[in-house]
């Protein structure tokens, strides 16, 4: 209590954030219970009959389960492999820019797409890649090539989503890495120069080890969202031709939970996603600690 009174101003400063998490994160967890009920909004939580694990059994036995699990995992793994390293690479490149005005200009340009909504990005994608009216296909046809079905070919869909994510958020993702790089001791670079190390050697042996803890923490947190693709992006880009590879957990929950009113069933799916993310975070955190890192907790 003495420590609480001593730091009362700090707790008061943190109070809005604490209230936010309590009201919008912890209190809604009560809704998890409906995944074990045949919930009806007319009778409420307390009077809805309990059905145990029936909704989970139904979901796992559904032929759509393997399809949406494959699609969700494939999109996230592709994003993890192609997208996650790019902010690190961009940060390393920006960290070597010595002209401050030029550096700030580049940062502003690569940050801007983050503030665009997925609706705008989907519209830009259609303008660029549409088979009949898209700028890219018009250029290909003008050069004597055949047009490419970027938007309706299932083979391109996962990569298309990844490229969109890279264009939108890779620049924004550099903020944390650049902040971490600013804390690296400059004397280490001077000592490396004295030893004859070039820029690449300095980045490899000083900069990257200096931000390794940040990279590992962000990677662990990223694994926690391995079952989340992003409903808005997928929903906007989905069409009948690519539905087989575009249907993910988020769109399936929207279709069954919102459109069909199967609240308990869709909540069970959401709980499954959360459990998978939690397990991955715990496992990745333990592995990071075994490798000598601090981890998330």
Automatic annotation (TrEMBL):
Record's subcellular location: Cell membrane; Membrane
Keywords assigned by UniProt, alphabetized: Membrane, Transmembrane, Transmembrane helix, Transport
Ranges where the ABC transmembrane type-1 domain occurs: 69-284
Transmembrane regions: 12-32, 73-94, 115-136, 156-181, 202-221, 263-284
CDD domains linked: TM_PBP2
Membrane topology value: Multi-pass membrane protein
Main location (coarse class): membrane
Domain of life according to the entry: Bacteria
Protein family per UniProt: Belongs to the binding-protein-dependent transport system permease family.
Name of protein: ABC transporter permease
Phylogenetic classification of the source organism: Bacteria, Bacillati, Bacillota, Bacilli, Bacillales
């Amino acid at each position: 209590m003495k420590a609480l009174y001593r730091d009362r101003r700090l707790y008061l400063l943190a109070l809005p954030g604490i209230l936010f998490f309590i009201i919008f994160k912890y209190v809604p967890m009560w809704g998890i219970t409906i995944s074990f009920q045949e919930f009806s909004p007319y009778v409420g939580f307390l009077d809805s009959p309990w059905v145990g694990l029936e909704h989970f059994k139904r979901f796992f036995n559904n032929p759509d389960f393997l399809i949406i699990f494959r699609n969700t995992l494939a999109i996230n793994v592709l994003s993890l492999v192609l997208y996650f390293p790019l902010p690190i690479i961009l940060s390393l490149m920006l960290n070597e820019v010595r002209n401050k005005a030029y550096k700030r200009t580049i940062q502003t340009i690569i940050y801007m797409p983050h503030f665009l909504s997925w609706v705008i990005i989907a519209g830009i994608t259609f303008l660029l890649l549409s088979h009949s009216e898209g700028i890219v296909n018009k250029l290909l046809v003008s050069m004597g090539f055949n047009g490419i079905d970027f938007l309706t070919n299932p083979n391109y869909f996962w990569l298309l989503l990844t490229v969109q994510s890279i264009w939108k958020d890779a620049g924004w993702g550099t903020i944390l890495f650049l902040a971490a790089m600013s804390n690296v001791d400059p004397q280490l670079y001077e000592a490396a120069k004295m030893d004859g190390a070039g820029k690449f050697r300095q980045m490899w042996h000083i900069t990257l080890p200096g931000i390794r803890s940040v990279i590992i923490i962000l990677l662990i947190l990223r694994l926690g969202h391995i079952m989340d693709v992003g409903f808005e992006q997928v929903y906007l880009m989905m069409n009948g031709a690519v539905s087989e590879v575009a249907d993910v957990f988020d769109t399936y929950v929207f279709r069954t939970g919102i459109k069909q009113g199967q609240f308990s069933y869709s909540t069970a799916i959401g709980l499954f996603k959360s459990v998978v993310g939690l397990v991955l975070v715990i496992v990745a955190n333990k592995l990071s600690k075994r490798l000598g890192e601090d981890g998330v907790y």
